[in-house]
Amino acid sequence: MSQNDLARRYGYFLWTLMQTGQLDLDAPRGAQVTSEAVAQFIARVEPHWSSVTRSQSVFKLRRMTEILAPEKDLVWLRAIEADLRSEARPKRRRENVTTNELLQAGEALFQEAENASHFSPKKRACLARNGLMVALLAVGPIRHKNFGELTLGTSFRRLEGSWWIILEAEDTKAGRVDERQVPEYLNLLVERYLATYRPILLARQAATSDCERAQAKATRLLLDCSLEVMSGPLWIAVTGEPLTYSAVGAAITDTVEATIGVRLSPHAFRRAVRTTVTYSGGEHRGLTRGVLQHNSTRVGDEHYDSDSTRRAGLELTAIIRGLTK
């Protein structure tokens, strides 16, 4: 429990007083911590904070008040704190999210974007982008930095009719080339994103329906002729700029929470691989290490080079698809 955290929680309390016009800047230290003010504070934050956060905040409000005004009688606040603590129920964290759940969530969101004619073009484009991000990271769980920096024509390219993620050795933590073929069942999503939704995001102004259709048609014609020579960042923000590292993480985390109810960072997609393999691919010795490019120090374990990593990725995507059918 740091001093900064105590000060921050106390600041939340003072902020509620300010919002209701009750903050007295000339009041003695701790004087405004009254039963009425604390009750108003709890009522104000209840719709937005979990029971655990409310309990912890009142506990830290009491500790800060004791520091500021050690002579103050806070028996009544300890009673409130005890009640909140007894009611606190931590949200259940799911550590067993599987890769196939993430894939299905991404595909479903992309389909929602396709059907959401009542949304603006930019809104639909963002939904499609986020759905593809979740689906693609599920089947190709590379590291957050590499995923956010995927670039058309280099690290994300089309070769002989298939899409590939290709990371050079100097760009990977393992120091090895990492090549992953995007499974065929995601090709349609990739090409719809590139043909229709990425151009909308690249446009600085919101597109009209007629403009969107014309732009999509022109881009599809271009794609038919030059899919292999497209360039630029894969992930585009609504501003037309490349998505930043933090924006990629936020989009993925928020999307997973909105679709399956669990907040997962991009890194957690790698844990999902272990869960999936444990539940459904346990007979595939070394598969998790291959997919995640982990070096093993255990005697007898297979050392995965770029070719065997590619095979591990194909095995995983086959397992995932089998689970989603």
UniProtKB/TrEMBL annotation:
Signal peptide: none
GO biological process, one term: DNA recombination
Keyword Repressor: no
Stored InterPro entries: DNA_brk_join_enz, Integrase-like_cat_sf
GO molecular function: DNA binding
Top-level lineage group: Bacteria
Keywords, alphabetical: DNA recombination
Keyword Cytoplasm: no
Record's protein name: Tyr recombinase domain-containing protein
Organism: Microvirga lupini
